[in-house]
Design brief:
Order of helices and strands: EEEHHHHEEHHHHEEEEEHHHHHHHHH
Number of domains: 4
Shape: elongated
Structural class: alpha+beta
CATH architecture of the largest domain: Orthogonal Bundle
CATH class of the largest domain: Mainly Alpha
Number of strands: 10
Strand content: 5-15%
CATH topology of the largest domain: hpI Integrase, Chain A
Number of helices: 17
Length: 437
């Protein structure tokens, strides 16, 4: 922290450096009047610098938390974040933070104020019309992340001495211990939907969604040169995002999100038929087909609004009397059916573009209930002694020879889902039994 003494007229001032103004990029200095004696100004500057170094407020700045967030911090974030992320930040600030603690001066904000904010949001943070209810644990945790970042930026630029959000106690999203409920169709319902919509103009889109697990935005951003018809693959590079009602294309932001996935022969045939149809339509209109154009677009080649596709899907589901799920749930259906079929979690995770197989397991832990109980039963069978009176050859046979074919199949399926060998699964079970978990 830096400071110096300056003189204006007959008075001396302690001038303290307060970081970079995020809106202008220029240095900010705070002037504190010290009177007509230079020695008083020198003492004041030393005291102010010491207080700032200890994390105390050093300024009589009357800037409130609301002013900092809306006038300094958010304008800078708008140029740095994706439109959808910026909109979510702004929504958190405008709806949850500013109305409740925005009037508190930035330098006087305490961890207790933030804790009170979280309690209030959990109690009645969701205000829609005449009804009120609390926000979810996950939503309040997100408010905490936004506020912690905003105050962290203020501390990094020496606007405040410390980030009090790091001292607050935000709720943990998993504190209720209940896994997220996933809505998905079984294979029969998915087959019924695809059969019923064969003649619909968006049938190919729904088919690719179901057979690849791609997100809605990824489907709407897919271009023809992203498809390798020789290798039967799709490379996912960008997505069509919705902010408010405006749409915009953006590159897929994570390493695992940018991925190449294999597609089935039937999915590839559906894409070939669509391309052939579009090439013929372009030729009939005397136009050139764009090999870099969108796979799923309006007749003029412009993108289809993703919300329109979602609403079309909802209407078709209702029309054909199927279990109500969202378009996004076709992604869950894809993952669920693969996991139930024994496909390794790592493979499913890569297809979905998840950050890690562990994340996939956490999301879809409901898919194979009872797997641990089955594995424990199999393990007991492995340890069973050979029957009395058996020959030496029989006693020397591996214990697995006595395991039923059904239990063996379940053990193999359990190992496949976890992406490990059977020996690895048994080792995990031994470790959990030894630790008392």
């Amino acid at each position: 922290m830096r400071g110096h003494v300056a003189k204006k007229g007959n008075n001396y001032y302690a001038v303290v450096y307060e970081g970079i103004d995020p809106s202008s990029g220029k240095e900010r200095h705070r002037w504190h009047a010290a009177g007509p004696r230079r020695i008083d100004a020198e003492r004041l500057v030393n005291e102010l610098v010491k207080r700032r170094h200890n994390g105390e407020t050093t300024t009589s700045d009357r800037t409130t938390l609301a002013e900092y967030l809306t006038e300094r911090w958010l304008p800078l974030q708008q140029s740095r974040l994706r439109p959808k992320t910026y909109k979510s930040y702004k929504s958190v600030v405008d709806l949850h933070i500013v109305p409740r603690i925005g009037r508190i001066r930035l330098g006087k904000l305490q961890a207790a104020d933030i804790d009170g904010l979280y309690v209030d949001l959990l109690r009645d943070g969701n205000r829609r019309g005449k009804t009120r209810s609390g926000l979810s644990l996950k939503s309040v945790a997100y408010v905490h992340r936004v506020l912690r970042k905003a105050l962290g930026d203020a501390q990094r630029k020496d606007i405040i001495g410390r980030n009090v959000a790091t001292l607050a106690d935000p709720p943990k999203p998993d504190a209720d211990g209940e896994p997220q409920t996933i809505q998905a169709w079984d294979a029969d319902e998915l087959r019924r939907f695809l059969d019923a919509t064969t003649e619909h103009r968006h049938h190919t889109l729904f088919t690719i969604a179901a057979k690849t697990g791609m997100r809605r935005g990824e489907l709407m951003g897919l271009r023809w040169h992203d498809i390798d018809f020789e290798r039967s693959t799709i490379t996912i590079r960008r997505a069509l995002s919705v902010v408010g009602w405006a749409i915009s294309f953006s590159d897929v932001k994570t390493r695992t999100g940018r991925r190449t996935i294999d597609i089935s022969g039937t999915a590839l045939d559906a894409l070939r038929r669509r391309r052939t149809s579009l090439e013929k339509a372009a030729a009939d209109a005397g136009e050139d087909f764009d090999p870099k154009g969108l796979v799923f677009a309006r007749p003029d080649g412009e993108p289809i609004h993703p919300e329109y596709i979602s609403r079309t899907f909802d209407r078709l589901v209702a029309k054909h009397g199927l279990t109500r799920i969202r378009l996004h749930d076709l992604r869950h259906t894809h993952a669920t059916l693969l996991l139930k079929a024994g496909v390794a979690v790592k493979v499913v995770s890569e297809r979905l573009g998840h950050a890690s197989p562990g994340f996939t397991l956490n999301v879809y832990q409901h898919v194979l209930p009872g797997m641990q109980a089955e594995a424990a039963q199999v393990f007991d069978r492995l340890l069973e002694a050979s029957p009395a009176g058996s020959t030496s050859d029989e006693r020397s046979a591996p214990p697995s020879a006595d395991i039923s074919a059904e239990l063996t199949r379940k053990l193999e399926a359990a190992a496949a889902v976890r992406g490990v060998a059977i020996e690895g699964l048994v080792t995990e079970l031994l470790d959990s039994l030894g630790s008392g978990e």
